[in-house]
Amino acid sequence: MIAAATTDAFLERAPVLLRDAVTGFLPEPWRTLVNALIAVGLILGIFGTLFAFITLAERKILGRVQNRPGPNRAPIPFINKRFFGLSQPFADGVKSLTKEDIVPRDADKVLHYLAPVALLAFSILTFAVIPYGRNLVPVELDAAVLYFFAAGAATELAVFMAGWASRNKYSLLAAMRALAQLISYELPLLLSWVPVVLIAGTLSTTAIVDAQAGWKFGFIPHWHVFTPWGFAGFVIFMVAALAESNRSPFDTPEAESELIAGHLTEYSGFKYALFFMAEYFGMLALSGMAITLFLGGWRSPLPFLEFIPSYLWFGGKLLALIFGFIWIRATFPRLRIDQLTRFAWKFLVPLALINLGNTIVWSLMSNSSALMQLARWPVCAAIILVPFVVLGRKLSAGVAPRIYRYA
Amino acid sequence: MSISDLSPLGAQGGSHVRAVHDEFHGDLLEVSMGPHHPSTHGVFRMIVTLDGETIVKLKPVFGYLHRNHEKLGENTSYLGSMPYTDRLDYLCSMTNNWAYAIAVEKLAGQPVPERAEYVRVILAEITRLLNHTCLAGFLMQDLGCSGTPLMYAFREREKILDLFESLSGSRMMCNYQRFGGCRVDPSADWLEGAKQLTDGYGQFLDEFEALLTGNEIIMARTQGTGVLSPELAVAAGVTGPMLRATGVNYDLRKTDAYGVYPRFDFRVPLGAHGDVYDRYMVRVLEMRESIKILQQALAGIPAGPIMDPKAKLRGFRPKAGEAYGRIEGPKGEIGFYLVSDGSPNPYRYRVRAPSFINLTILEDMCLGQTVADAVIILGSVDIVLGEVDR
Amino acid sequence: MLGSGLIQGLAVTAKNLVGSFHDPARYTNVEYPEVKTKLPEAYRNFPFLVTESASDPMGTLRCVACQICEKECPPQCIYIEKSKDKKPDATGKMQLFPAVFDIDTSVCMSCQICVEVCPFDAIKMDQVFEVATTSRFEALLLNRNQLAKPNTYYHSIHPTEAAEVDGRLAAERKAAEEKAKAAAAAKAAAAAAPKSATAAASATPPSTTPTPKPPAAPSAEAPKPPTPAA
Amino acid sequence: METAEQIRDRLLARFPGAEISVVTNPGAAAQHSLLLGHAHARAIAEFLRDDAPLKLDQCSNVTGIDWPEKKIVETTKVTVPDPAGGPAKVVEQKSERVQPGYLEVVYHLYSIAFRHGPVILRLRTGNRTDQVTVPSLTPVWRACEFQEREVFDLYGVKFEGHPDLRRILMWDTFKDHPMRKDYVEPDDYEWEPTPHGAVLEKAKAHYPTPPAAAIAPAAAPTPATGGAKS
Amino acid sequence: MNAVLIVIALVTLGAAAVAMTLRNLIHSALLLIASWAGVAAFYLWAGAEFVAFAEILVYVGAVSMVVLFAVLLTRRSRADLTVTPDSAGRAISGFIAGGAVCGVLVGAIVATPMGVGSSPTPTVTVKQIGVQLMGTHAASLLIVGVLLTVALLGAIVIASADRTDDSEDTP
After folding, report:
1. Residue A316's domain spans which residues?
2. Which domain holds residue D45?
3. What pLDDT, on the 0 to 100 scale, is given for residue C199?
4. Which of B186, B336, C181, C182 is the most buried (most CB within 10 A)?
5. pLDDT tens digits for A135-164?
6. pLDDT of residue D206
7. Does residue A38 belong to any structural domain of this protein?
């Protein structure tokens, strides 16, 4: 944890000051250890409750989109007043703890037990490198982004273990589908943030956030998302993130209308809750990384809003992205597995590669004359939009709204 | 072992599939989808033989909801069977009642007053709106939308069910029509409520279509899936929107011209490809036509008796003989074949259920498709198990 | 352009999300136990026996145990046993009454055919739907006392229908009275004629008030029970 | 559209050896039907489907009907000369005739191309016990596939030439044919609080004590677990 | 510091050894993947973060999937896994080959001069690695890239060769 900059407002430095107050007196080796433990505790605490309330928010927002109130029956334990269902997550938590954990007779006991543990472990690992505030990054790594996606890539191993260990036709089919989907969306996910590293020149997350400091004309922040290649990269990243965390248009593995609950069919009780927690942690981590790479991490969008502490900005952006995930889940149906993989290989990967070329053109044109600075906007926009339309038309070749005749 | 000898109707089957069997394909996986399955619309089971993801054989299994409705019909009086017809296709009780009433009126030669015919057309078209809206909701639920279109459909369905409840006393089990007219005369403000419903329905359909019809994912999933050829559809006795989606122009409201349908001008939408998207779109366009019929019927409903004065309620004994009456129900041609021997109970009481016969070619549509497609093909056939199993 | 349909879909869900907070047409949800919806007047669930007065329900039961509803009920869930003796009904005529009148509400499907076929308007449809009980047999088998409800209750749940039924019954009673009076006058005239001839004959005490003709059969056909449904 | 008689004549012209007769329908619907012999049934069906003016390409409905043995008592009026030379008296003579039972399959055919109404075909089996085979029309109209399986399942009519003749509604190990008139229900009687009519005899078979409704409902005997399975 | 090294070495070698003895194919495949993770841990211990994360990303992420798919698609059921060598000749030649490989390895290990004093682990930033890759070793990087692409295309050709004859039946 780098030393706190003295010039910031008090609220900004509050968390670091608090931590130094607590561990200030410890001798050197023990202090870093305790600091790390505090960071781990904080992450698990905050993201654990955030996970609980996101499940509630998801059901409430889905409810409101469908013109119904969403869960509002669970009373607060002792004062048993129904407060808009705010205690629903705790009710779900207790339910998942008390539900019987059935393991099928001829399941592969070891793998069946290991799958949720591995999945959760890998998705929690990814929280280590996301900068939550001005100097609130748990681990300062030089190759932080690579570490993030290395930990993320191992989740498919755990999904396979879950599918294979349950010895059930449905979960076997779902394990195959999940693997096909995760592998084919890993490529666009990785390719979409390569332009950011190209421009920022570093793999360390804090350096990337610093690269997005400052404002142009006083109010447009230098975030990567406000550049043509950045916006394209952001969209590809978010679509691939949707697929990686098995969210709505891409939730074929647990397609409830076809394969019951996919690779989760034979899980119940707390292991099922662990799978859910791992999925939500994956979603939170990916949106955290999207914020860091494209939305200027913990930076405030306008200069005069600087007084709001940086971690609140990060939280706000995170909740906005989560709302986006839920909104998409409320609207879109599910893609079939072959359409899903065709969409990845024939649309997202080429676009990501073109976006890479687009960034190179952008950076070459950026250090020349002012005219070129202006010209690079339409040029780069065209470089990415034209293939988008062409590939789009090729992808949806035989698919179009039809005109109907009447007899 | 090629496909054709697997499904006995291979030679005559529609979309014929030839799968090369070699070691790479591995052995076939037999999966039983149902009767407890989230998307089989009730207790319906499909034994699906899979080669990887593609379906090689699909055998539907019925009978889980079989109550022997026809034996019940033979042991109860003509009037006593009327409440049981509500439980055939429990989404559209009004059209079931009308089909049974039309068959008995044909059997006994019972005239029906003008106002009752208008009320029957109004209720049948409202039931068509209800059924097609629910079908769109269930189909989108099978496609994977997490409940949003279904909840919009149910919000509109509630308004319709309130209308039925204030008229017949019960939301779904209306038991409203009698031989020779209807049981209760709709009041003026009921007709006003029906007029408000139809006027507001067009706006709901616009919003519903904005959400669904142009959606690329839905178009990609449903266009080209479960194609049904017109010849096979006609040969297999498929009726209703499924038949019209293949382009065959056959709507009983136009061909049989029963009731007072000839007085209203409305058009019959026809599909061109016979796939799941066409079946969805034909039903949505039919809803817009139903709104037109409703507006004309509500405007032109005459005064007069709702029940033919000479109609006998209890000691109803039609002369010996037989009759087959049918109407264009929302799911297809629903018909009743009655054989009477002069006693108060029918000698033979047969229900021609559209869902049951439309399932004949489920296997032909699903061959070669994936498991995910089989679910939406079944959804697009629009079956209700009460009617399939009787 | 790929994705325009998807964005349109997102716009619709956003409109509904916002709409559900202020637009009553969209947010039609009613939180049932706390807020109850107003039942339409025609709503029907489970029949009940109409009694003239609330004070003496068993005495003023309209039902005359003609067992038509028992025969016509499709699921056969009504069980009637006639009484041995008779009791005067509303018009004073001596009528049978049901000693046992059970409806098994676990079988009854509230199809109101019994109401339609009852010639004496003795059974009407109730509007009670919160009838959950713990025992499967005893509590769901409603006997005569549990079924009987006063005519005032009938007015409270089905006002227009009840008024129309009472109007019809009153008209019938009035017609029955006139007919009885006319019959009595005719009998008196006939009795007067021979009396003038046999003035000396001891005045035979006139029979007690002439029994009025049974009330005219209501508009439906004669209550001749049809051959039992085989 | 031609009447049944015209169609019969054209068919007889086309298939000289076939047994085709018109069965008149006395009811008000006046939908007369053609009774076909087994030999030419499928050829006639194919002809009706492809023949130019008729083109009956949709088999809308396939129904099974069970006609058990029936004793027909015919009263014929016979004029008997009065042996005492008086005027001839008319005497009704009752002659009893047993009509053999048979199973019948009725097909309702419609034409989608020319949109005209039902032509009804009837196929009858030899008797109700061993000769129960009928030529299947599924190869002609694919619509008959499931409906013929249902007639086989519920009536026991074997369709010769049907591609996949199995039970469709009942489970495969079910022995009897439930829709036949002489079908005896399995004795799976469950205790009912208000048994009356046909159910009353069954109740007596299971519960020698009088049915529960007679005695006060409160003391209803709790049924033996799972109903008395005799 | 070398206590951690011993633990990592034990984990890596142990996992690989156990993987060889297990009868269940899937278990042995997963233990193989665990030993790759052990190798990545070794890189981390040695301070080469970039290589460690690359190892996890490539091996534990992608190659493990290839191994598991291969295991799934081989139709060998557990029964016909013969452990005993077919003939004596095959066993002897097996030993000879194994012995030769061990000899070469041991020779190489002995020959390399093990630096006794541990020089301070150089902190190399990712930027320097990038410059090195694109600078001096650009040629080798490109060769490896081409090699992988060829391998990829070859795999696709083999797979699609099998697809062509039944590709027309899926609509």
Report:
1. 102-392
2. 4-68+102-179
3. 53
4. B336
5. 888 888 888 999 999 988 888 888 888 888
6. 75
7. no
Is a pLDDT exceeding 90 seen at residue B333?
yes
Q: What residues of C are in contact with residue D222 (Cβ under 8 Å)?
A: 137
Structure tokens that stand for D213 in this block: 């409704």
Q: Which of A108, A154, A202 has its CB closest to that of E56?
A: A154
**Cβ–Cβ under 8 Å, residues B88 and B53:** no
Do B247 and B337 reside in the same domain of the chain?
yes
Domains in chain B, number: 2
pLDDT surpasses 70 at C107: yes
By Cβ distance, the residue of B9, B234, B323 closest to D29 is B323
CATH of the domain at D162: 3.30.460.80
Express each pLDDT in D26-44 by its tens digit: 888 888 999 999 988 999 9
Residue B322 DSSP one-character state: E
Which residue among A66, A169, A334 places its CB closest to the CB of B151? A66
Helices (H) and strands (E) in chain A, counts: 14, 3
Chain D contact present for C228, CB below 8 A: yes
Percentage with pLDDT > 70 across chain A: 96
Residues B191 and B334 both lie in one domain: yes
Question: Is A77's Cβ below 8 Å from some Cβ in C?
Answer: no
Chains C and E lie in contact, requiring 3 or more CB pairs less than 8 Å apart: no
Mean pLDDT of all residues belonging to chain C: 81
The token duo for D120 is 């009804």
**Contact status, residue B205 vs residue B338, Cβ threshold 8 Å:** no
Owner of token pair 């292991």: A271
- Convert the pLDDT of each residue in A329-375 to its tens digit: 999 998 888 888 899 999 999 999 999 999 999 988 887 778 888 88
The one-letter amino acid code at D53 reads P
**Is the C-alpha dihedral spanning A90, A91, A93, A98 positive or negative?**
positive
Q: Considering only CB atoms, which chain A residues are within 8 Å of C16?
A: 65-67
Q: Do chains C and B touch (3 or more CB pairs under 8 A)?
A: yes
In chain B, which residue's Cα lies nearest the Cα of C111? B83
Taking the Cβ of residue B361 and every Cβ of chain D, the question of whether any pair is shorter than 8 Å is answered with yes
For chain A, the domain total comes to 1
Give domain limits for chain E: 1-78, 122-160
The SS3 of residue C84 is coil
Closest of C177, C195, C179 to residue C90, by C-alpha: C177
Contact residues, chain A, for B214 at CB < 8 Å? 401
Nearest residue to A255 via CA among A339, A335, A156? A335
Instruction: Indicate whether A7 belongs to any domain.
Output: no
- In the predicted model, residues of chain A with pLDDT beneath 70 are 1-8, 253-261
For chain B positions 48-77, those within 8 Å of chain D (CB to CB) are 62-63, 66, 68, 70-71
CB < 8 Å to E126, chain A: 142-143, 146, 202-204
Its ipTM equals: 0.83
Report pTM.
Answer: 0.86
- CATH architecture, domain E1-78: Up-down Bundle (1.20)
Average pLDDT of chain B? 88
Question: Which candidate, B367, B381, B385, B155, places its Cα nearest to that of B276?
Answer: B381
> Which domain, by its residues, includes B20?
3-61
